[in-house]
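To illustrate the input format used throughout this study, we show a single complete record. The first block contains the structure-token representation of the backbone; no residue identities are included at this stage. The design step must infer an amino acid for every position from geometry alone.
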């Protein structure tokens, strides 16, 4: 960071005792550094509560904070990404969740990492965002046509909204027809999101710095319907096909952004905005993978 951080926002589920424990340590530490602490209006902090903390509207976090510290799991950091995506504010993740591919600072290293972040000594990494645009009522002549937009750091997901009803949908990339899919939907993921929902759909693990997008069908009806990796410069279009009682939703980073009806159009492409993540010096992506996926922990006796 080129300029000193004067205001830092804390986000997380503060009612979680593990998160609250970290916040209780962070608050006096940040105040001792002369950094103003911001939280989202309505947040209930552990004792001493909001003493010396400034509550601000959710929509102002990205405008007023020079650093956002997400305390929790990857879901908390994804929420933080939505707050800062249009403002270029860096994110630091303290891992108090279950897995934590994005929140890679351990609680015991938290205060040192925060000091390094405030002093501009952490490694910064730019991550690609996807922009999803739903053209509802896209059928020709529909007077109710409307557009919904959202950003995603991990993935844009088209998923069925009614249990037991399979979806049929066409996918085009850069105007070229790819396939007509039948199944529960499709995950369109960034390299960052390749270790999230797309991974459980059989997608590959992609190094975060690679400028690609993974398209992974969800429970495809045809076994030959496999994940495809395309350039992040690609323009992906998904159109739902008319089917009896078809109902689908578009989800960005776990948040439902709108419904997709037959003949509606979902467009996905790389956003101009990018997210800045902060990592400790010597950050090793493969060490992170080994830790989170428990690689190299087999029961074989290699001495034989």
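Output of the design step:
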């Amino acid at each position: 960071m080129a300029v000193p951080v004067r205001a830092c926002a804390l986000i997380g589920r503060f009612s979680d005792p593990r998160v609250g424990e970290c916040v209780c340590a962070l608050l006096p530490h940040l105040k001792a550094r002369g950094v103003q602490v911001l939280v989202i209006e309505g947040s209930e902090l552990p004792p001493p509560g909001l003493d010396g903390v400034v509550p601000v509207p959710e929509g102002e976090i990205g405008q007023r904070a020079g650093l956002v510290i997400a305390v929790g799991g990857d879901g908390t950091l994804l929420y933080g990404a939505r707050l800062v995506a249009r403002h270029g504010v860096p994110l630091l993740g303290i891992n108090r969740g279950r897995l934590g591919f994005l929140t890679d600072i351990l609680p015991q290293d938290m205060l040192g990492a925060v000091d390094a972040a405030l002093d501009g000594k952490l490694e910064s990494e730019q991550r690609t965002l996807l922009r999803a645009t739903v053209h509802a009522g896209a059928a020709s002549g529909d007077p109710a046509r409307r557009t919904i937009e959202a950003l995603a750091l991990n993935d844009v997901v088209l998923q069925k909204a009614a249990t037991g009803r399979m979806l049929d949908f066409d996918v085009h990339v850069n105007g070229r027809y790819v396939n007509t899919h039948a199944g529960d939907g499709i995950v369109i993921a960034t390299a960052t999101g390749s270790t999230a929902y797309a991974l459980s759909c059989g997608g590959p693990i992609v190094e975060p710095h690679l400028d690609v997008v993974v398209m992974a069908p969800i429970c495809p009806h045809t076994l030959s319907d496999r994940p495809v990796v395309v350039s992040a410069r690609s323009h992906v279009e998904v159109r739902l096909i008319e089917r009896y009682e078809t109902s689908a939703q578009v989800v960005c980073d776990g948040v439902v952004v709108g419904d997709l009806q037959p003949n509606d159009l979902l467009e996905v492409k790389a956003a101009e905005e990018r997210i800045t993540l902060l990592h400790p010096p010597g950050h090793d992506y493969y060490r992170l993978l080994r830790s989170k996926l428990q690689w190299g922990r087999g029961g074989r006796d290699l001495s034989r």
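Structural context for interpreting the output: The chain has a mean pLDDT of 91. The first strand starts at residue 7 and ends at 12.
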